[in-house]
């Protein structure tokens, strides 16, 4: 996803991985993790990890390789390999600054940002348009999918089918979470 890190900090977005299970495995296998892979979270950071977000340090310069390494370690220990997306602060700030629904920021639970593993080559935008409710709006900008769903993302056919129709791995966060992730990263810098 990201060609390289300009700083040694990254944001980790993991789908379908209970943080409790990752913590259990880390405790049981401390000797099997590289020294620079382990870290201690603050209470606030623990809350973010539970939602699938983490800020961490890495000297790795190749984000796809680091993503593969993390996915592989989880696979060895848990028997499945979740999608792992690594984002830099610049990615998050770009997504925030390019938000096409600025007025929707006052309703942060209804505004969602889908971070994609790459820019879609052949997204089915016509079907996405046909699935959206009258109250919903969406926009694809490079490798970010914006969705405003004031009637709830959980009831949205558009939200439920976006990843499949974009044909790219995506992890979705509401506006409040994206803002909190940015704050977490800035505190670490």
Structure, explained:
This protein has 189 residues and is an alpha+beta fold. The protein has 2 domains: 9-87; 97-175, Alpha-Beta Plaits (2-Layer Sandwich), CATH 3.30.70. The protein is 39% helix and 19% strand. The chain has helices at 19-28, 43-50, 63-78, 89-97, 125-131, 157-166, 175-188, and strands at residues 9-14, 53-57, 84-87, 111-116, 137-141, 144-148, 170-174. The strands form 2 sheets. A 4-stranded antiparallel beta sheet has the order 5-6-4-7. Strands 2-1-3 form a 3-stranded antiparallel beta sheet, sandwiched between helices. Helix 4 runs antiparallel to helix 7 and helix 5 (125-131) runs antiparallel to helix 6 (157-166).
Précis, in short:
With 189 residues, the protein is an alpha+beta fold. It is built from seven helices and seven strands.
Helix-strand pattern: EHHEHEHEHEEHEH
Please, how many domains? 2
Helix content: 25-40%
The major sheet is characterized as: 4 strands, antiparallel
User: Span between N and C termini?
Assistant: 22 Å
Q: Please state how the strands of the largest beta sheet are arranged side by side.
A: 5-6-4-7
Alpha plus pi helix count: 7
Number of strands: 7
Radius of gyration: 17 Å
Structural class category = alpha+beta
Low-confidence stretches: 1-10
Mean pLDDT: 79
Strand content: 15-25%
């Amino acid at each position: 996803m990201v060609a390289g890190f300009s700083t040694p900090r990254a944001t980790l977005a993991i789908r379908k991985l209970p943080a409790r299970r990752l913590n259990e495995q880390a405790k049981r296998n401390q000797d099997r993790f590289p020294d620079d892979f382990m870290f201690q979270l603050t209470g606030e950071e623990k809350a973010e990890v539970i939602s699938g977000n983490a800020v961490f340090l890495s000297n790795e310069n190749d984000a796809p390789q680091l993503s593969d390494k993390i996915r592989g370690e989880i696979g060895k220990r848990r028997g499945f390999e979740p999608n792992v997306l690594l984002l830099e602060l610049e990615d998050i700030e770009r997504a925030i600054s390019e938000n096409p629904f600025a007025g929707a920021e006052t309703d942060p639970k209804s505004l969602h940002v889908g971070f994609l593993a790459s820019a879609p080559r052949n997204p089915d935008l016509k079907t996405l348009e046909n699935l959206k409710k009258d109250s919903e709006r969406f926009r694809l900008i490079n490798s970010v999918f914006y969705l405003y769903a004031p009637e709830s993302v959980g009831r949205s056919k558009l939200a439920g089918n976006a990843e499949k129709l974009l044909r790219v791995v995506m992890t979705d966060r509401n506006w409040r979470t994206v803002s909190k992730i940015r704050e977490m990263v800035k505190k670490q810098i």
